[in-house]
Request: fold
Amino acid sequence: MSSNSPMQKQSATSICSSWMMSSPQEPPASPVPKPSASQEMSASASSPSASPSHNSKTGCFSEIKINCDLFCISLDLHYLCTQINVEVMEIKNQFAKKLMDIQAIKLQPNDPFTWASGWKSPIYTDNRKTLSFPQLRSFVKLELCHAIQKHFPEAEAVAGVATGAIAQGALVADQLGLPYSYVRPKPKDHGMGNQVEGEIKKVPRW
Reply:
């Protein structure tokens, strides 16, 4: 359960508003006799004019209100980010469980795997194995589509990286109805010598 529930959020916002409204106020000043014209001229000549932001009652209250508003905005953003993180973690946990169900996660602490980067790791995830299981294949495809629509709504094409992402990229492009291509690590040494396979036409932006 998230630590920033709507009730806690509302409570924090109420505290913020109460703090703003209960800020100390200066007591009303006692009546002061109106100075003479000569006294006014002398005072204006000897001291600079007061600025509303210099310890004035209005300036103090405005500053408190601004700080309170910023605090509440920060609280809202933190709550939103927390909710997003919770959703992402739920998807990650679901995916990890599904990978474990098909035994796609391998552990070899005594004989580490060698990754494409050359790093040695005691764990390896065979993501290609997801293609053999229709329900999991669809899960991966749809979650990738949701991520693209949410974070890259203006995407005009999909490209997969050879070889692991070729199939999933094609599935995602088909689901979204977008052009597709895939990219090799380096150009071929035969045929057309392409590094990018497929044709992606530039779409004019308005």
